[in-house]
Amino acid sequence: MHSTVRAGRSEPDESRFERRRYHRTVTDTAAPPETRAGATRPTEPAPASVDGHEGTTESPKPTTLVLARHAVTEQTGPLLTGRAPGVDLSEDGRKQAKALAERLADLPVAAVYASPIERTAQTAAAVAERHDLAVQSLAGALEADYGEWTGGKLADLAKTDLWKTVQRAPSRVRFPGGESMTEMQARIVGCLEAVVADHPGEIVVVVSHADPIKAAIAHYTGLHLDQFQRIVVSPASVTAFQLSAHGAALIKCNDTGSLDELRPPPPEEKKEAHDG
After folding, report:
1. Is residue 167 part of a domain?
2. Is residue 188 pLDDT above 90, yes or no?
3. What average pLDDT does range 207-223 have in this prediction?
4. Domain containing 141: what range?
């Protein structure tokens, strides 16, 4: 604990200790999400003056990127649907999509994007309807191209040697007739970066698939792709990041509960968080 010298003696500075605490559930050693990414960046030089006036700099506002996995279909679980067309949400899936839309309804969502396939588009449509938005197709958020594995039974695929590599060293995998896992990760990260660049300071929702979302989580948290099978992304779950020019902060991961923490705080709460 820090101490302050007063009248020749050292006393604990409790008020200073308390000011380090934040209004959200953040550990004492971590900055609030909105300031964490840029907390350790080097001090930037002051901008040059123009016509005798001091220049000013303003950090770009972070974007809240909400990654939602599609709701379930009749094939979710027993089959590797992949990019197979014509697979709609099941009755349970439609209920999940509706529940996801209700969880996101109170957030000021600026845009809703979806992988261009039925199950993701239908999930995204439920979300977009609550915000009076149109779903924007996002090809980069498409499921991995599993090639000849598409439509296969997971129980059968699990017996192959390639399945073992998928689980233990996915960075070494290329699906027969399809793409590699590293190509899939580069694709999803590239398209998400483009979305973030188009929506500075806004909340955007991207509805995608389990493996692309897991690959994005691995990228933004600094986890090697070979460990991405340690991540679980459930149907209709939410994973959220705050992304700025200075880094990324993971706010939610595989969340199926309240999303209140994603709501932008009032100005006075923002000031309190920065002053802490």
Report:
1. yes
2. yes
3. 98
4. 63-262
- Compute the radius of gyration of the chain from its Cα atoms: 22
* CATH number for the domain harbouring residue 159: 3.40.50.1240
Global pTM reads 0.77
Looking at per-residue pLDDT, the higher value among 13 and 59 belongs to 59
Domain count, the chain: 1
Tokens in use for 253? 């991961």
pLDDT at 23 over 50: no
- Does pLDDT of 153 surpass 90? yes
Sign of CA dihedral 82, 87, 92, 98: positive
Rounded to the nearest angstrom, the gap between the alpha carbon of residue 270 and the centroid of all alpha carbons in its chain is: 21
Give 31-76 pLDDT, tens digit per residue: 555 554 444 444 445 555 445 555 556 677 899 999 999 999 999 9
